[in-house]
């Protein structure tokens, strides 16, 4: 197999592995609060929102050290170990205990930081400036198939049910645990590239370290990766992109946890309210996959760069937020187990709710494919630190959003996303214009996004 063929194979395996793991994890996150609401009449007294806040809070802090960990053990093994911790978190729901639930939340926060740093490193190692847009699209589209499969199962299994029994819960989470483990095993199929740099290395560091893999040299690489992360954090481009990244963290919280909870709390949806959570996840996944395919796989046909895609993303999201504001009761995110009988500005419509799910996924793919692309382009030599900073900002904002989701009415959550999204779009445009100027200065063709 040629070098390019091997790299494409690695990207596909990377995407399929993440698809399996996040089929399990995203489905888990989508139904966690609904399942927990049914558990809170027992000895279990956890909160899905609080768990997710812990996960993303720990994830954000762990991104300070994740480049160093990836530098020491390598991206492949880092992803394998992280996948095991994802599986353990999902398995907690088979027989929930409050202490195990929150302990697993801390552990998966650390694992997620390492997993996404290693993913960014692997994606960049197997791409160049001509293929980063395509490969980002392939990875993103494969990853988002996870929203289809897991939520389709939930939709079919929970159709017509207003209460989730213990048997229903165990069946779902045993299946999700096995799916996550399959994805973890697939990481072993990724083939190592020759003559690739370790995370955080530059040419001068390589001269010092040479080919040695001793413990001392690995530690030097880890320290170099940590220093590089701190340095990159304060560059103009990274600070500007952090506003855009912050927006993706808020949106991630909303569509992966809050919006499904809102749908499941609307009593006017009748006996379908719980199964609609799964159907909503499917429509989010369709939007994500469509966006990944169009704006990643077909990127070579665009000569106008990343900005039009991001502009489309923010417009699509603003339409979705407007429709959600009119369609969903204001107290839906914090409704009790009995649900809510309130009505917003229209009688709640299942069709409008599913349309909004699709728009949320499509807009999210616009932002994430372009962020992956521009990070891989700007920081091809420092991919692990750059992607660690990306996940640091995204996850800390997701943690904050999960925290306030326990208390804020729907209108305030939507308003926050509108404001941050507006400024995040402007800052992305600024960085992209700089990237276009850099390409023009090198005499390169500005034909990929």
Polypeptide structure, described:
The protein folds into two domains: 1-190, Growth Hormone, Chain: A, CATH 1.20.1250; 228-439, Growth Hormone, Chain: A, CATH 1.20.1250.20. 75% of the residues lie in helices and 0% in strands. Helix 4 (75-91) runs antiparallel to helix 5 and helix 10 runs antiparallel to helix 15 (410-442). The chain has helices spanning 3-39, 48-62, 66-73, 75-91, 98-125, 132-157, 166-186, 203-209, 215-233, 236-265, 275-297, 307-327, 350-378, 383-404, 410-442. Mean pLDDT is 80; it is low at 195-199, 204-213 and 445-449. The chain is globular. It has 15 helices and no strands. The protein is mainly alpha-helical and 449 residues long. The chain crosses the membrane at residues 7-26, 46-65, 100-118, 138-158, 170-190, 238-256, 276-297, 309-328, 386-404, 410-431. It is found in: Membrane. Belongs to the unc-93 family.
Helix content range of the residues, please? over 70%
**Could you tell me how far the N terminus lies from the C terminus, measured between alpha carbons in angstroms?**
27 Å
CATH architecture of the largest domain: Up-down Bundle
User: What is the structural class?
Assistant: mainly alpha
Number of distinct helices: 15
Q: Strand fraction band?
A: under 5%
Biggest pleated-sheet summary: none
CATH superfamily of the largest domain, by name, is MFS general substrate transporter like domains
Number of domains: 2
The H/E string reads HHHHHHHHHHHHHHH
* Number of E-type strands: 0
| CATH hierarchy class name of the largest domain | Mainly Alpha
As an assembly, this protein is single chain
Low-confidence stretches: 195-199, 204-213, 445-449
Average residue pLDDT: 80
């Amino acid at each position: 197999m040629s070098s390019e063929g091997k790299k494409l194979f690695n990207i596909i395996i990377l995407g399929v592995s993440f698809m399996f793991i996040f089929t399990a994890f995203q489905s888990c996150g989508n139904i966690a609060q609904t399942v927990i609401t049914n558990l809170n009449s027992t000895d279990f007294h956890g909160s899905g929102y609080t768990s997710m806040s812990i996960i993303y809070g720990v994830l954000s802090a762990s991104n300070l050290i994740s480049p160093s960990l990836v530098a020491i053990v390598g991206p492949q093994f880092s992803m394998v170990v992280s996948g095991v911790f994802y599986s353990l978190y999902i398995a907690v729901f088979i027989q929930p205990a409050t202490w195990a639930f929150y302990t697993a939340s801390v552990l998966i926060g650390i694992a997620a930081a390492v997993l996404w740093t290693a993913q960014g490193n692997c994606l960049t190692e197997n791409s160049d400036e001509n293929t980063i847009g395509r490969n980002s699209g392939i990875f993103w589209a494969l990853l988002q198939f996870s929203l289809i499969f897991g939520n389709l199962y939930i939709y079919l299994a929970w159709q017509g049910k207003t209460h989730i029994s213990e048997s229903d819960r165990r069946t779902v989470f045993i299946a999700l645990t096995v799916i996550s483990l399959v994805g973890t095993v697939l990481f072993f199929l990724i083939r190592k590239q020759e003559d690739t740099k370790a995370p955080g290395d530059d040419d001068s560091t390589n001269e010092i370290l040479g080919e040695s893999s001793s413990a001392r040299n690995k530690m030097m690489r880890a320290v170099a990766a940590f220093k590089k992360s701190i340095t990159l954090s304060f560059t103009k481009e990274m600070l500007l992109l952090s506003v855009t990244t912050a927006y993706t963290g808020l949106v991630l919280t909303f569509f992966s946890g809050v919006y499904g909870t809102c749908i499941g709390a609307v009593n006017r949806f009748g006996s379908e309210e719980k199964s609609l959570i799964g159907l909503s996840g499917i429509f989010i996944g369709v939007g994500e996959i469509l966006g990944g395919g169009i704006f990643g796989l077909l990127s070579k046909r665009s000569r106008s760069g990343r900005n039009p895609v991001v502009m489309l993303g923010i417009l699509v999201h603003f339409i979705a937020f407007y429709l959600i504001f009119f369609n969903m009761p204001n107290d839906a995110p914090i409704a009790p187990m009995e649900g809510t009988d309130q009505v917003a500005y229209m009688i709640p419509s299942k069709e409008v709710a599913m349309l909004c799910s699709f728009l949320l996924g499509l807009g999210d793919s616009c932002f994430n494919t372009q962020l992956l692309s521009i990070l891989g382009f700007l920081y091809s030599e420092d991919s692990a630190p750059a992607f660690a900073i990306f996940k640091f900002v995204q996850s800390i904002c997701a943690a904050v959003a999960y925290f306030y989701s326990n208390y804020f009415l729907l209108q305030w959550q939507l308003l926050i996303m509108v404001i941050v999204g507006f400024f995040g779009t402007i800052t992305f445009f600024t960085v992209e214009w700089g990237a276009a100027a850099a390409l023009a200065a090198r005499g390169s063709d500005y034909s990929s996004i």
